[in-house]
Design a protein that fits this description.
This protein has one domain. The relative contact order is 0.14. It is elongated, with a radius of gyration of 21 Å. With 145 residues, the protein is mainly alpha-helical. The structure holds heme C (HEC).
Length: 145
């Protein structure tokens, strides 16, 4: 094999690898959002649902109703992460007794725009939605395939 052919082969291989990386890589910004979601999850959900969502948090054994395995939400929804449903669980809270009433959920005021009264309403809603969105990104990350 000539040197030139070798070089072309190496170049083609390099391009294939590069394209592969571009395809799977996620941006730093997205990774930061997922990490922020993890922090949010650890703070508000992990005590019951466990670090990876399996329902085995340290409170789980003390609860009469066992925390759901929320790592299986995607699997249970034909492989599609049910973003809208879970958004409403976090934002609405009224459906799940163990999460507490909407006005006083077990995770406090983290996802309640009314707790941020010092800035205008439109901003606080968007801010809190951002928090919920980050949390959803993390939840999606821990789904069992
Ligand atoms: C005090 C314990 C506790 C905390 C904290 C908690 N959960 Fe739950 N959660 C539960 C229990 C218990 C259930 C199951 C309720 C039932 O089966 O009726 C549940 C159910 C759910 C469900 C419904 C699952 C399904 O299959 O329909 C979702 C989604 C969920 N939790 C998400 C969260 C998220 C996200 C957080 C954090 C923001 C959180 N939970 C915090 C106890 C908790």
């Amino acid at each position: 094999m000539s040197l030139k052919r070798g070089a072309i082969r190496a170049m083609v291989l390099f391009l294939i690898v590069l394209l592969g990386c571009l395809n799977t890589a996620i941006s730093q910004e997205l990774q930061d959002a997922i990490d922020a979601g993890k922090t949010e999850y650890m703070r508000s959900c992990a005590l019951c649902h466990g670090d990876k969502g399996k329902g085995n948090g340290i409170y789980a054994s003390k609860l009469v109703i066992k925390p759901a395995n929320i790592a299986l939400l995607q699997k249970g929804n034909n492989g599609v992460f049910p973003t809208r449903e879970i958004f409403q669980v976090i934002e609405g809270t009224d459906d799940i007794k163990l999460h507490g009433p909407k006005a006083m959920p077990v995770w406090g005021d983290r996802f309640d725009h009314e707790s941020l009264l010092y800035v205008d309403d439109r901003f606080t809603r968007t801010f809190v939605r951002g928090r919920i969105f980050e949390l959803l990104l993390y939840l999606e990350e821990i789904q069992v395939q």
